[in-house]
Fold these 3 entries.
Entry 1:
Amino acid sequence: MQQKIKYRLTGLAVILVSAVIVFPIFFDGAGYQERHLTSEIPEAPERPEIVRIQPQNQALPDTSLAAEPMSPVPLPKAPENVQKVIDKEAADHKIDIDIHKEQPVLDQQGVPVAWTLQLASFKDEANAKGLRKQLIAEGHKVFTRKQGDLVKVYVGPEFQKSRLEALKLKLKTDFGLNGIIVRFTTQ
């Protein structure tokens, strides 16, 4: 054999013998202490007992639809001096209201019943805004609501339906709009 191959085989044998002797010394498993630590995590607590509590309050009534109006409560006649002040203020502010003729009423939930005049429905919001500007310029209380893809124009609200009926006739002659009177809601 050649001399180089002998040196190589001798070197390989020395490495193997030293690996067999040294390997068990360093890798006996005693050097890595963290694996042998005891756990200090406490045991899981017992699950609490689930208690079902029955509600004590009554469920609120459904308010998605407006409640029906109650019958009006008769109002006492105002004293003469108070009636004079009311008449004077009504004349000064051009208010035409007679609470003894058509009394405002409350519904079963205690909410005042008010009415609005729905004049028009538009797909284009600019048209609704234009009509609203015209009506405001005439001195009317006007608001719009978006419902779906329509914008509706309303006049009001008023507590006396008869005032809206008179206003409906006036707006029909002035603007050519035939509206419908609907119950006022905040939604």
Entry 2:
Amino acid sequence: MTNLSDFSDDELGQILDAPGAVLKGATLADGRPGAIRFIRETATGAKVFREAQQHENDFIQSVALALRDRIKDEEEAAEQSPAAKVGTPEGVAVPEDPRPDPERDTAKAVELTAASIAVLRERADREDLVAYGDWLLRIATEVVKATKSKEGGFFSKRLAVSEGEQDYLDRLTAAIGR
């Protein structure tokens, strides 16, 4: 089994950041993030993350648990920070444009996925590499299928996966090497 301690801090950061980036990319892949749609897709992504904490693959389970612990640590740090009480946590750089950008965010997810897969190819067991890639694809697939999309306007039929979402899934699949 591959251990998280086998990786440098930067490499581990990529491995832990990729699932969240994949989730964000999936919510924005069709370019029309709406409030209800966002809630459904995020809830579906959270379900996939929770399931991963009980995953049959120990590496996936350790990544999911590390993500859970990271989030708890960030929440605790934010609660204790005096700067957080006025809106900006200490030491956190405010991005230039915090608004979601579907093109930028899906490209970032694909890039981060490719980088994390490259790291795993070098050091991870083959079984763990495959399981990690499958997990990232499952996150994206479940999120894009959480709501139906309309292509072509108000009177068009609803699709399980929009053209933009399918393009995102295809790019993600290619980044994983399948």
Entry 3:
Amino acid sequence: MHILVFGASGGVGKSLVEQALTNGDEVTATVRTPEKFNLQHPSLHIRRCDAFETADVAALFADNCHYDAVASALNTNQGIKPGNDLQRMLSNIVPQLQKHRIQRIVYCASAGVDNELEGERGQAAMEFLRHPLADHRSAIEQIQVAGLAATIVRPLGLTHGTFSGNYIEAVQGIPAGSGRIARADVAHFMLKALHNDAYIGQSVALSGV
């Protein structure tokens, strides 16, 4: 499988690239500064791309590039402030997927994006994160309106912990796990979802055990 990874320089994205290459996949990793991306592999293609720039994204699909699937591990610098970074980036990506008839996408969002966090603490967390969650929802809406074969990933608290491959999934609500999960394990699930059509159309929450 040839996977186009957006946000490849981040914690989840870089781990996804590494795991996909180990799995035998071909990967095109998009980064703003290729010289700072220190991975090398015969099946890895590194492309400079600012996803805010329509021309940059379009250029990824030139020269008869054939991607089987797309993974988005894009993040935002807006923190908890109002913003539309993710919506803007997906507004450049989604039309290219439609134009080039690429259906499969796995999008890494955040727990709370489905308004699924219960209880007083859950409601407080979603209120605190209301702006980034709204931005994720706007990005996801574009994917859904386009009719793409999507899997939405909803990790709980992200950590820099080592890869374990041991985590809990929940399609409804959130799993009864630790409430935290290593970025490498989120990447593991994203790769698994890309290779398993059973996850198409699902929104999956992830937690460490």
